Amino acid sequence: MITPTSHQTHWYKANQRFQRCVVGCRVNEQNRRTGLDLTVSVFGLGYVGCVSAACLAARGNTVIGVDVNAQKTEFIRQGKTPVVEERIGELIAEVVAAGRLTVTEEVAKAVLASDISIICVGTPSAPGGGLSTSYLERVSAQIGAALAGKAGWHVIAYRSTMVPGTCENILIPILEKASGKQAGIDFGVCVNPEFLREGSSVRDFENPPKTVVGETDERSGAALLSLYDGLPGPRFRVPLAVAEMTKYVDNSFHALKVTFGNEIGALCAELGLDSHAVMDIFLADTKLNISPAYLRPGFAFGGSCLPKDVRALNHTARQHDLELPVLSNVLASNEAQLRRAVDLVIALGRRRIGIFGLSFKAGTDDLRESPMVEFAERLLGKGYDVRIYDANVALSRLMGANRAFIEERLPHIGELLTDDIDTVLAHGEIFIAGTAEPAVVAAVDGLGPDRTVIDLVRLPGAEQRRTRPGYLGIGW
């Protein structure tokens, strides 16, 4: 064993003091830059909690880490990381040395000493595939008990992934019962989902794609958001359940993208094609492919291209004995969306139906595989009294563009079709909005409260209009 000389020991201690000074100056500068001066307790020092605690401390906050695992807290107490992640070891060493990050196993001590408690405990899958909330419930009860003895405002922010409704229906009642206080009045509750990827989580924290805060009250949401002042990306302040849902939407879509790419790759391989060359072309289209296009919930798709091409691709896969579960279920999912619309009409219990829009999308007279045509035919088949307004289709019937198609394939619908919107308005008890053309928007806004509107296209102003009784949508 080599024993350091007194000179080496003196140099080491001086260097440590210098490093602490550098870190302290860096943290203080960060604090001045962001204007933060909050004490935050972070419950659960696993992957998300450890990264969140270290990054918040590096931004100038005083952070208290809490975990029931004494080994984890001891690691951090020594300036070491309990998780493997790029830059996290260096970051924890710095903020612990600067005194910005401390740890404890005592819940009450952490709550009483902090302004905001961030919950990062695990939510593993239950045996049936549901979510286990046992850790969330336990820590909520402990924090609630600590709040009972605390004067002043405190914010509890859940960063754990949990299904919509968990916070309002399970966790807030636990907090209120244990504390004897009321959420939104005596303390605040937020949901703050994380979007951290393992391997790049520190970079993701510093450069988030977005920041989402669900809140019980404006005061709590503002306090929590202040922790992220200066970070890039859009910010969203939303109801608790919306914030809970965002993480599931992100991860499910990521999983869908991986699966879609793999299924296309499998089919390309069978056909002797370079799948990456195909996907390079696909990815180059940022107008329709890699964009917000087609991602707004609404009615089923149709037209001369999408159904036909999905069928053809699946047929090609079957010819090669290739199983593509995602692609093979696209049309089945589309059919389910159509059934949901029909079921909604049936549930309303009225018989006279007015339909606005018949073509497969606005601005065209094309009826090929239009979901609105299928919708109308199903209602007719169930005995509903239907009238249909579509100025473009009615005109094309007279001019000849769709005349043969209507006369040969849809004569029963042709008899119900008109270009006079007032005729449909006078007839209907329930109105189906399948187009957002101005005449339809004006007609919907002129309806009385005794009429029901099923909006399939989310008409302009739907956000305000949906508070009106009888205004319904599909999937939104």
Automatic annotation (TrEMBL):
Listed EC numbers: 1.1.1.22
Coiled-coil regions listed: none
Domain of life: Bacteria
Keyword Metal-binding among record annotations: no
Domain UDP-glucose/GDP-mannose dehydrogenase C-terminal: 354-462
Catalytic activity field: UDP-alpha-D-glucose + 2 NAD(+) + H2O = UDP-alpha-D-glucuronate + 2 NADH + 3 H(+)
InterPro entries, per the entry: 6-PGluconate_DH-like_C_sf, NAD(P)-bd_dom_sf, UDP-Glc/GDP-Man, UDP-Glc/GDP-Man_DH_C, UDP-Glc/GDP-Man_DH_C_sf, UDP-Glc/GDP-Man_DH_dimer, UDP-Glc/GDP-Man_DH_N, UDPglc_DH_bac
Pathway: Nucleotide-sugar biosynthesis; UDP-alpha-D-glucuronate biosynthesis; UDP-alpha-D-glucuronate from UDP-alpha-D-glucose: step 1/1
Keywords: NAD, Oxidoreductase
SMART domains, per the entry: UDPG_MGDP_dh_C
Assigned protein family: Belongs to the UDP-glucose/GDP-mannose dehydrogenase family.
Classification via NCBIfam families: NDP-sugDHase
Protein name (database record): UDP-glucose 6-dehydrogenase
